[in-house]
Amino acid sequence: MIKKILILDNNHPFIIYKLKKEGFICHENYKDSIDKIDISVYDGVILRSRLKINKKFIKKAINLKFIARIGSGIENIDKDYAAKKGIILISSPEGNKDAVAEHAIGMLLSMMNYIIRSHQQITIKKKWNREINRGTEIMGKTISIIGYGNTGKAFAKKLSGFDAKILCYDILPKVGDIYAKQVSINTLFKKSDIVSLHVPYTEKTKGMINYNFIKKFNKPFYLINTARGGCVITNHLVEALKNGKISGACLDVLEYENFSLNNIFHHYKYSKSFIDLVRTQKVIFTPHIAGWTKESKYKMDKKIVEKIIFLNQKLKS
What average pLDDT does the structure give for the chain? Predict the structure, then answer.
């Protein structure tokens, strides 16, 4: 049975209100480091990405029944050791899937129609250039989705009105639906005009978009990454943008995202590849906000609460 829950990140007020209403005791700690937190008295912990839940922390969690990560990724949790200790992991990818899907489409439209570039030409350079900003339509293109889970499916559904051909690739079988046809990776290499990543960050997906992967595509394509920055090797992306293997990239996440933007500019290892990306003038950046809407903040927290209540009911029975 779950009684005491520790909340480690500031979330939507709904989460504490609803949990307390259901009879749970909620404590908040938004400042302490992982070593200063006494987790031994808690049955559950809720967090986002402020802290990493490591083996040392889990060892001290003698009463812990669940770890809830608000959002889709659980890479900041030692999930293998948690599973070994019988601790259930909860996440809420359903909560921000629509936000991610809308953002991906917005970035793609901006890229293919030169919306940001032409806006800057008008407002900064005072130039009204039409021909060099002639866009490309999504209609008739083949869009390939790598990773067909919550966000991949939401992306495909929202694309259904664009009259494009939607393909998906996933390591799990039979996940295709009316919005996307599941195909082999080789089919993606042959057909893709646009590729969108919707995969979790794992050992298998780390650096998966590298030059060996990119060169297998039969034609140039646009790349969208709203998943995790570490899935794309930045230097290889720069090379592909320069030689035309990739026509343009929409990046909501970066490989070296643990560093602040200021640090990127001041650490040569990271600054050179980032500046090279900027200089290609073929990339649109956003600061990891694809799933970061007012609505998704509420929906992710609501989903976490529902799952905690359901888990507690199971533990009682």
Answer: 93
- Measure the CA–CA gap between 128 and 110, rounded to whole angstroms: 17
Which CATH number does the domain 97-285 belong to among 3.30.1240.10, 3.40.50.720, 2.40.40.20, 3.30.1300.10? 3.40.50.720
Report whether pLDDT(262) > 70: no
Structural contact between residues 197 and 225, judged by C-beta atoms closer than 8 angstroms? yes
Task: Name 206's Cβ contacts closer than 8 Å, sequence gap at least 6.
Answer: 230, 231
Phi-psi region of 173 (alpha: psi -120 to 50; beta: other; left: phi over 0): beta
Q: Which residues contact 191 (CB under 8 A, 6 or more apart)?
A: 142, 144, 165, 167, 183, 218
- Whether the pLDDT of residue 263 is over 70: the answer is no
Tell me what the mean pLDDT of segment 68-88 comes to: 91
Q: Mind telling me the catalytic residues? A: 228, 257, 288
Contact 41, 63 (CB under 8 A): yes
- Select from 172, 150, 167, 165 the least CA-distant residue to 101: 150
Give, for 187, the enclosing helix (H) or strand (E).
Answer: helix 185-191
Dihedral sign computed on CA atoms, order 54, 57, 62, 66: negative
Out of 3.40.50.720, 1.10.10.10, 3.20.20.70, 3.90.1150.10, which CATH number does the structure's domain 4-92+295-316 have? Answer: 3.40.50.720
User: For 14-23, what is the mean pLDDT?
Assistant: 93
pLDDT digits (tens, 9 = 90+) for 169-228: 999 999 999 999 999 999 999 999 999 999 999 999 999 999 999 999 999 999 999 999
